[in-house]
Design a protein that fits this description.
The protein has about 290 residues and is of the alpha/beta class. It has eleven helices and twelve strands. About 35% of the residues lie in helices and about 20% in strands. The chain has a five-stranded mixed sheet. A five-stranded mixed sheet has the order 9-8-10-7-11. A hairpin with a 2-residue loop joins strand 1 and strand 2.
């Protein structure tokens, strides 16, 4: 057994108290121990350090030169142990860490600009990494601590992850002001037949998130372009006679026109989620609180 394995905090507290009191009876009273227990701890300390540590005198003990020198290190260690157990005061202005957010293309456009502004203002030493949302790798990345927070849609998140709803969103049908369909009053059937662009960031295919909604009306969309992200779709709309169903907050201020529909697509939630290991992490809770102000 190593010397470290034979040493514990209680022995160091006995040593520290003996240094201060120079009396076994007083040290025992201070620590709530018997004198025999104090003697046993002292015996163990002597074996560990190979020094008598204390010599008897008429009314107590006197420390050896080695014990006096050792007491400086022991005091420092016990202060550090106490600090380890003391509640930490969280101050964003002093946080010097790296925080990693995995966000969908939509969240990077709509959620992160405001969050990043707050983080830069309130936590100037915090370094932030924003990475694309990888649905197939998310659990592994979050379980290994490579991602701290995910901002996406509920269906993308593992079922056992804690999450908070940030806001409710809905799709709108949009097109370039110059497209043919924007000039007419179109039925839902007309909209389904018109060439459509979708964003499929997780897997490249021609399946859109509102296909099931169209199917309720016995309709199937005429999808002609599948783009890898939401942000590029408005540019494609400008150069093609096409429409797209995009989240309402992602198309604000882009100069697109909304196609009025006789029915409205179902709304959906935008959420932030994290691995349960971070439930009590102060930085994590603070970042989430900034998101919930939205």
């Amino acid at each position: 057994m190593s010397k470290l394995d034979r040493l514990d905090i209680k022995q160091l507290r006995v040593f520290q108290t003996l240094i201060r009191e120079e009396n076994a009876s007083k040290a025992a009273n201070q620590l709530g121990l018997t004198q025999q227990a104090v003697s046993e701890h002292l015996k163990k300390l002597r074996n560990v350090f190979g020094d008598r540590l204390f010599l008897r005198k008429t009314n107590g003990f006197i420390p050896t030169p080695f014990a006096q020198e050792l007491s400086i290190s022991v005091d420092k260690l016990l202060i550090e142990f106490q600090a380890l157990l003391s509640p930490k005061v969280f101050d964003p202005k002093t946080i010097n860490k790296t925080f990693v957010i995995a966000a969908t293309d939509y969240a990077q456009q709509v959620v992160l600009p405001n969050l990043i502004s707050k983080l830069r203002h309130q936590a100037p030493f915090l370094k932030l990494i924003v990475r694309d949302f990888e649905i197939d790798k998310l659990h592994e990345l979050m379980e290994t601590g490579k991602v701290n927070l995910a901002i996406a849609f509920p269906d993308y998140i593992p079922k056992n992850y804690p999450l908070v709803k940030l806001f409710e969103e809905h799709h709108v049908c949009v097109a370039s002001p110059n497209t043919s369909i924007s000039q007419t009053n179109s039925s839902l059937e007309d909209v389904a037949k018109h060439p459509s662009i979708i964003a499929s960031p997780s897997r490249p295919n021609f399946k859109g998130s509102i296909d099931d909604w169209f199917a309720k009306f016995g309709l199937k969309r005429n999808i002609v372009i599948s783009a890898p992200c939401f942000s590029i779709v408005p540019m494609y709309l400008e150069t093609t006679d096409s429409i797209a169903f995009l989240p309402s907050r992602a198309v604000r201020g882009l100069g697109l026109v909304e196609i009025t529909l006789e029915h409205t697509p179902d709304s959906f939630d935008v959420i932030a989620a994290w691995h349960p290991r971070y439930n009590e992490d102060e930085l994590q809770k603070w970042v989430i609180s900034l998101l919930q102000v939205e």
